[in-house]
């Protein structure tokens, strides 16, 4: 089960890197970043951690790994993080929210939409935290 | 005109060309400013000022030259170009390239076509969609999500070429992808409509706009960050509306 998730998220992230025209030799790396992000999220969500928290931690890992690869390969970090965060995007929650809007059940729709919004915020916060972390490391080294 | 001023003009040209390519290919705004200032500095102009938003670049050099402005009207996603301009700027900083060489190389990058042909991108998004549907809900959603995901992405590219309104293309693409998923569900191909639809609109998700918005906001580029955020929000809204329309038809 977990092997299947690992493999599929790797393939999916690498292929989505192709849509963003990531250089050929870096596709494997971006697939790896996506795989790590999804695995962290999957593991934490399986262990009943809050979705928002799980997304935050996963996005943090994605951004850290992207920055590491960026320094290693001397390319912009966006190249890796872009396909890495795609699996974390709250598609399911947003879809449920939409479904409830269509069903005229606005109470459920709004609470689901708020949840989707919180998860997107968690992605952003994960990216921000990793940037802060990096700057701290940089300052500590110099 | 003295040669000194000519050279300054050329430097400004190189800076603006580099900035234009990065911005048009989906790089962050702060990267544009950073790259332009670094290039200017390594050609001997330590103080330059730039104001970059996703739709235009204003660049000026202290007291020596007139301020220049270029308009960016068409933005696409080609991170390969961003990486290439980035490496050219690194080489300029190291002093490996002269002004003329840098300009030539940037022109070359600008003229280059997309790295992957459309058919390959469509196949990639199709298989990617299928993989996501499986990750969320099991193998019997694979085939329908693969078909509708690929068709949705192809639709997006085609409509975007036809009408230059990005959000309409996204709306239409998610409408087609969702509709196909629904049809295949009715034909008995998949089991979970929700997972199929989520998988098939994944290639349209504004991942680049989200990351760029966050990075721009963090770098203190508030206006650029907000407008990127608006772009991401509008895209998400367009996708959601397309899917909602299909759900309401059902």
Automatic annotation (TrEMBL), chain A:
The keyword tRNA processing is assigned to this record = no
Q: Which Pfam families match?
A: ThrE_2 (PF12821)
Threonine/Serine exporter ThrE domain location, by residue?
5-132
According to its UniProt record, where is this protein located? Cell membrane
Q: Which domain of life is it from?
A: Bacteria
The UniProt entry, under InterPro entries, shows: ThrE_2 (IPR024528), ThrE_Dicarb/AminoAcid_Exp (IPR050539)
Q: Does the keyword field hold NAD?
A: no
Q: Membrane-spanning residues where?
A: 27-45, 51-70, 77-98, 110-133
Q: How does it sit in the membrane?
A: Multi-pass membrane protein
GO:BP terms for this protein?
A: succinate transport
Protein name per the record:
Uncharacterized membrane protein YjjB (DUF3815 family)
Could you tell me which species this protein originates from?
Answer: Saccharococcus thermophilus
From TrEMBL, chain B:
The superkingdom of the source organism is Bacteria
Q: What is this protein called?
A: Uncharacterized membrane protein YjjP (DUF1212 family)
One cellular component term from this protein's GO annotations in UniProt: plasma membrane
* Transmembrane annotation, as ranges: 114-136, 142-159, 171-190, 230-249
| Localization of this protein | Cell membrane
User: Which terms does the record give in the GO molecular function aspect?
Assistant: transmembrane transporter activity
The Swiss-Prot or TrEMBL record describes its family as follows: Belongs to the ThrE exporter (TC 2.A.79) family.
One Pfam family assigned to this protein is ThrE
Keyword list, A-Z: Cell membrane, Membrane, Transmembrane, Transmembrane helix
Give start and end of each Threonine/serine exporter-like N-terminal domain: 13-249
Q: What is its main location?
A: membrane
What membrane topology does this protein have? Multi-pass membrane protein
Q: Does the keyword Membrane apply?
A: yes
State the organism named in the record.
Saccharococcus thermophilus
GO biological process terms, alphabetically, are: succinate transport
């Amino acid at each position: 089960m977990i092997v299947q998730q690992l493999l599929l998220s790797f393939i999916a992230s690498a292929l989505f890197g192709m849509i963003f025209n990531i250089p050929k030799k870096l596709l494997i790396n971006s697939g790896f970043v996506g795989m790590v992000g999804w695995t962290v999220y999957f593991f934490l969500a399986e262990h009943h951690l809050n979705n928002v928290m799980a997304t935050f931690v996963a996005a943090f890992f994605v951004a850290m790994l992207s920055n590491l690869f960026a320094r290693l390969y001397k390319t912009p970090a966006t190249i890796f993080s872009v396909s890495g965060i795609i699996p974390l995007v709250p598609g399911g929650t947003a879809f449920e929210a939409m479904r409830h809007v269509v069903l005229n059940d606005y109470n459920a729709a709004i609470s689901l939409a708020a949840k989707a919004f919180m998860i997107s915020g968690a992605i952003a916060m994960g990216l921000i935290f990793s940037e802060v972390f990096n700057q701290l490391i940089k300052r500590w080294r110099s | 005109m003295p040669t000194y001023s000519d050279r300054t003009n050329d430097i400004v040209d190189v800076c603006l060309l580099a900035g234009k390519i990065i911005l048009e290919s989906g790089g962050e705004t702060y990267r544009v400013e950073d790259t332009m200032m670094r290039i200017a500095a390594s050609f001997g102009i330590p103080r330059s000022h730039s104001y970059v938003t996703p739709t235009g670049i204003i660049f000026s050099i202290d007291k020596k030259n007139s301020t220049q402005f270029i308009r960016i009207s068409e933005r696409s996603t080609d991170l390969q170009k961003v990486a290439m301009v980035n490496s050219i700027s690194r080489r300029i900083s190291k002093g490996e390239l002269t002004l003329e060489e840098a300009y030539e190389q940037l022109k070359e990058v600008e003229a280059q076509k997309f790295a992957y042909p459309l058919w390959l991108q469509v196949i990639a998004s199709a298989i990617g969609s299928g993989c996501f549907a499986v990750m969320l809900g099991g193998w019997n959603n694979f085939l329908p999500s693969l078909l509708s995901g690929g068709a949705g992405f192809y639709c997006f590219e085609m409509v975007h070429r036809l009408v230059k309104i990005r959000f309409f293309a996204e709306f239409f693409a998610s409408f087609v992808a969702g509709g196909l998923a629904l049809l295949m569900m009715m034909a008995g191909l998949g089991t979970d409509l929700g997972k199929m639809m989520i998988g098939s609109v994944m290639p349209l998700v504004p991942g680049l706009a989200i990351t760029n918005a966050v990075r721009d906001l963090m770098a203190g580029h508030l206006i650029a960050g907000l407008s990127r955020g608006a772009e991401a929000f509008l895209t998400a809204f367009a996708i959601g509306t397309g899917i909602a329309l299909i759900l309401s038809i059902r």
